Amino acid sequence: MSIISLNIEKALGEVTGEQVFALETGVAKSIEALHGGSRPGSDFLGWLHLPSSIADADLKKIEDVAASLRARCDFVVVVGIGGSYLGTKAVVEALNSSFDWLQSERSNPVLLYAGHNIGEDYLYELRELLKGKRFGIINISKSGTTTEPALAFRILKQQLEEAVGKDEARHRIVAVTDKSRGALRALAQKEGYRTFVIPDNVGGRYSVLTPAGLLPIATAGINIRELVAGAVLMEKMTGAETPFAENISALYAATRNALYAAGKKIEILASFHPRLHYIGEWWKQLYGESEGKEHKGIFPASADFTTDLHSMGQWIQEGERTIFETVISVEKTEYSLTVPYAEDDSDGLNFLAGKRVDEVNRMAELGTQMAHVDGGVPNIKIILPEVSAYCIGQLFYFFEKACGISGYVLGVNPFDQPGVEAYKKNMFALLKKPGHE
């Protein structure tokens, strides 16, 4: 069985094992608070036992609607922002081919994204791309009034209805929204859209294992049962009864808090596997939005190695020593490719001839770890046996559980985001929205 694991050995230098384990009591109290719902944010703990509570009938409904969209559409636009967008994109980009969207013969539609920005050129170009194409829309919003996705959906809904008529459009539009209230729920009932529910007690950044993530992921042809099974395993592995030293979410939360207390204010999530780029983007929202409160919190950054070693490598190696790294290390790649021998050896690479490209990448990873640790950058390693739905499901739940623990250890509510509203108030006032002048 492929199970992810954690190694904090290379983080112990700036802090000691004793300092990490000194947080065991605080971590235990945080876990108790999570499972007992005794601290602020307890009304948003639906994600905690979500994997094990997903019924087979729920998965079947998602799979059936996804199959319907695949039959009717060559493109499906996922409309959403934040957690309604990043989790889906992270999973799909990790598990599909890097060049999947370029394949001329496909069994699954291309997923496109809208509502995650207010870019006029982006929306115009998306409309142009979709002209004459068979496309559908998965609209994800609890309220239906969040500016970015609401604006994108209004534009795309009009285009789809003009292209295929309202009757066909209602078969190609799916709403993932609140159970009983909100503008999108009312519109879905009026128009007859198929709907799925985002639970009230699950916040957006924790929602990838709700229909908000599972429906588009299934539409992309990914096995959501394997994804959920991986999360179920990690839910058990990080349960309240698991001892601190064996609970990888607890150990990760404690280590990063110990490093934060020692002056390490920036965490860089890095990987040497290009498909994991959007895992980093999702992770940044999860930790930034959960912990960045009351003038506290580690700043979450991400990097793609070895690419970013040629742009950010100098700063990471010799810049201000306020950083630590968490590296997702992939043990097994999907394919095998060997470096060929060249007669003239003009590039000087014959010393690599016969070696797999992955071996070169692994030595780059090891060499980078050695250099950064020697340069004063503590290194936490998350070992991912393979990039599969089962392992990615584990990884997402691992990070979610660790985030809840870490936020409580830090002393903040990791399940709200009051600061996000500040820009919206100013924007609405500037646009003269009624009630915001």
Walkthrough of the structure:
- With 437 residues, the chain is of the alpha/beta class.
- Helices cover 46% and strands 13% of the residues.
- The protein contains 16 helices and 10 strands.
- The strands form 2 sheets. Strands 1-10-9-7-8 form a 5-stranded mixed β-sheet, with helices on both faces. It has a 5-stranded parallel β-sheet with strand order 3-2-4-5-6, sandwiched between helices.
- Helix 2 packs across helix 15.
- The longest helix is centred in the middle third of the chain and has 26 residues.
- The chain is globular, with a radius of gyration of 23 Å.
- It starts with a strand and ends in a 7-residue tail after the last helix.
- The model has no long low-confidence stretch (mean pLDDT 94).
Features:
five-stranded mixed beta sheet; five-stranded parallel beta sheet; 16 helices; 46% helix
